[in-house]
DNA sequence: ACCTGAACACCGTTCAAGT
DNA sequence: ACCTGAACACCGTTCAAGT
């Protein structure tokens, strides 16, 4: 009995889903195209129609990650009030929560070894994200809740603190209460840094 | 003519040196034990005497990295004056400079997929490093130049900011002047966060 | 257009055997 | 103790050929 026809039908999407499962379970290094093909029930050469190379698949995963992080951050902003401190708090916690749930994916998003053409898309995705944070800072400046200054420069310490905190907490083996405390401390730290 | 005797003599050190060259040139993902063996002029099985697995070699490289970063940070402290602001500035710039010169190595050091036994050593190395920074902060508190508080908590935002800044700058494709500006802004940010 | 089958040139790791 | 030779079970990628 032939469960699967000659044409899989939606191999591209299936590969991405399977890839994210093993990414989440075992990390990017353990990802094998041949294994994905096996799990999808196709021949070892089949994936190459949809992803010319393994890196192309990883790049596609990274793009998906940016899209989802974008949604999460935007949603967090909508739930926040107008005050800068509240917005910053929400953004930081949303980012942190995403990074805890998608550690390996985030690592992939920040990895600097993409194909040249995909790198273009990914840089654009990063800009979209920092653009969102930029607007929050500018808004804070307009409300007089953030000290004046070049926003492109002011955004760096915030982005760095968040990215670094998630990286630290994931590699260090901290407890959940330590993570919570560390996040709260870091947010307070950032608030002080932005205060007029 | 037999240039090399049956026993290589110092294969372990040779492998580490060669490994760091390709790490620097092409990244950790491109590192191949067989290739290293070829470059060292030994059989493919020879490395396994010194590094039971590829990960073991990567772990050894990471340990080397911690030792060197430790030296760099300690030296930076010795060149600094007594004022907290000066010490923080030196530490931050030393870390940044190390991270620019040893991007791939630093990534390895922070990577969270080590062998269980090596992980132990690496966690100890991290503690040694944060211990150094902890002492600087405590010193600042004694001098009244840093606000009071739990040092283990206070150190997190600093470590996060530095780690995150290097990660950002490496993945983003920033210019050297942007890096310099970003670093200066981040240091100022941290100084404000620590001010009493 | 999408997939298979078979091949190519690689891997990491293991293990008996050599020096 | 340290290394070789040969083997095993994998990889990613390519390409003619099938549906």
Structural overview:
In chain A, 73% of the residues lie in helices and 0% in strands. The termini of chain A are far apart. Chain A has 196 residues and is mainly α. The first copy, chain A, has helices at 11-26, 33-40, 54-79, 84-101, 103-110, 116-142, 151-172, 176-194. In chain A, helix 1 (11-26) crosses helix 2 (33-40), helix 3 (54-79) packs parallel to helix 6 and helix 6 packs across helix 7 (151-172). The model of chain A has no long low-confidence stretch (mean pLDDT 92). Chain A binds a DNA duplex (19 and 19 nucleotides) through helix 2. Chains A, B: Residues 9-69 form the HTH tetR-type domain.
Helical run tally of chain A: 8
Order of helices and strands of chain A: HHHHHHHH
Identify the biggest protein-protein contact and residues per side: A-B, 34 and 34 residues
The top-level CATH class of the largest domain in chain A is Mainly Alpha
CATH architecture of the largest domain in chain A, by name, is Orthogonal Bundle
CATH superfamily of the largest domain in chain A, called what? Tetracycline Repressor, domain 2
Number of distinct beta strands of chain A: 0
Low-confidence stretches of chain A: none
Determine the fraction of residues in helical runs of chain A and give it as a percent range.
Answer: over 70%
Distance between the termini of chain A: 72 Å
Any idea what the shape of chain A is? elongated
Report the biggest beta sheet of chain A as strand number plus sense, adding barrel if it closes: none
| Nearest-integer average pLDDT of chain A | 92
Class by SSE composition of chain A: mainly alpha
| Number of spatially distinct domains of chain A | 2
Strand content of chain A: under 5%
Radius of gyration of chain A: 20 Å
Quaternary state of this entry equals homodimer
């Amino acid at each position: 009995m032939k469960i699967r026809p000659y044409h899989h039908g939606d191999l591209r999407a299936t590969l991405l889903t399977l890839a994210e499962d093993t990414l989440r379970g075992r990390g990017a290094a353990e990802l094998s195209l041949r294994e994905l093909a096996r799990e999808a029930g196709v021949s070892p050469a089949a994936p190459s129609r949809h992803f010319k190379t393994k890196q192309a698949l990883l790049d596609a995963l990274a793009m998906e990650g940016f899209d989802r992080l974008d949604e999460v951050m935007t949603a967090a902003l909508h739930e926040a009030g107008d005050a800068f401190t509240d917005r910053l708090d929400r953004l930081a916690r949303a980012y942190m929560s995403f990074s805890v749930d998608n550690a390996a994916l985030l690592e992939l998003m920040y990895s600097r070894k993409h194909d040249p053409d995909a790198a273009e898309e990914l840089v654009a995705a990063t800009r979209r994200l920092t653009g969102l944070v930029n607007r929050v800072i500018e808004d804070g400046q307009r409300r007089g809740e953030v000290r004046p200054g070049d926003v492109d420069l002011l955004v760096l310490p915030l982005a760095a603190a968040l990215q670094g905190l998630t990286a630290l907490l994931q590699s260090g083996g901290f407890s959940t209460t330590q993570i919570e405390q560390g996040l709260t401390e870091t947010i307070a730290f950032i608030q002080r840094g932005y205060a007029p």
